[in-house]
Amino acid sequence: MTILDGKKVSNDIKDEIAEHVKAMVSKGEKVPHLAAILVGTDGASMTYVNAKVKACERIGFNSTLIDLPDYTTEEELLQKIDQLNTDNDIDGFIVQLPLPKHIDEQKVLMAVNPDKDVDGFHPTNVGKMALDLPTFLPATPYGIMELLERYQIETSGKNVVVLGRSHIVGRPMSILMSQKRKAGDATVTVVHSRSKNLKEITLEADIVVAAIGISEFLTGDMVKEDVVIIDVGITRVPDATKKTGYRLAGDVEFESVSKKASYITPVPGGVGPMTIAMLLKNTLLARKRNLQ
Ligand code: L34
Description:
Layout: E1 2-3, H1 6-26, E2 33-39, H2 43-59, E3 62-68, H3 74-86, E4 92-95, H4 105-111, H5 123-130, H6 139-150, E5 159-163, H7 170-178, E6 187-191, H8 198-202, E7 207-210, E8 228-231, E9 235-238, E10 246-249, H9 254-257, E11 263-264, H10 271-291
Parallel strand pairs: 1-11, 2-3, 2-4, 5-6, 5-7, 7-8, 8-11
Antiparallel strand pairs: 9-10
Helix pairs in contact: 1-10, 2-10, 6-7, 6-10
């Protein structure tokens, strides 16, 4: 069993991007500038956004964190987005999800200029992705494909089962892995909360991408020997023995599944850090597009 070390691979990618930035600086070019909007004080969201800002600092990007209170109105958020859309110094920006319930997420994502949409969530970019046209790929699926590629895991002709159909992970993952591309060419099945005979389906999988949002959902009896496991889930489970008061759990029961797996991502240290690395990669791409 090999651990797919997302922490290490993400650091390699960050080093590669840092080299690009150095070259840009030496040519007198403007370095990429990422902005992130965070609405509210959700602990996990704050952790992720802060990690994104820190990663920017480490590789030499400029970054701006826009922290808005949870009572921010939809209109105020849309105004902020408009400012970023027209600010020539900002190459790309994200609106961290989830948003407070009183804000219409789809409306917000549609307000982002697709050329600055480094999350790849705007319908224009989702459409381009589905049609295999050049665009910003959503960071988590992009990170998973990069991880599979760097570990040279064969996906062509394999049975991939994606657990979950979310707009940000399950759905794009299933589209990308079925396409003719590196870490693609797979036979993809999407299963979700209404699927029947789930275990029968997962037992056929060569690769499982677990993104269903239920901690330790996938257990050892649901997978075959030598399966490749990508665990996207990250839930804070109360744990009094920890300083923080919680532990992080994936969608996979690591203990039982790792005994059967040929490769498996850990939580933490798997998919999460890859998400951040690919966001940076998209931001670099956004900057380069601006260069013309
Ligand atoms: N707009 N919203 C937008 N874009 C995204 O790409 C995200 N996502 C998801 C949630 N909302 C979003 C993220 O950034 C999930 N996500 C994310 C990013 C980073 C990490 C996890 C999820 C991460 O770095 N995880 C660490 C542990 C961090 C901790 O201590 O809690 C890990 O090793 O998995």
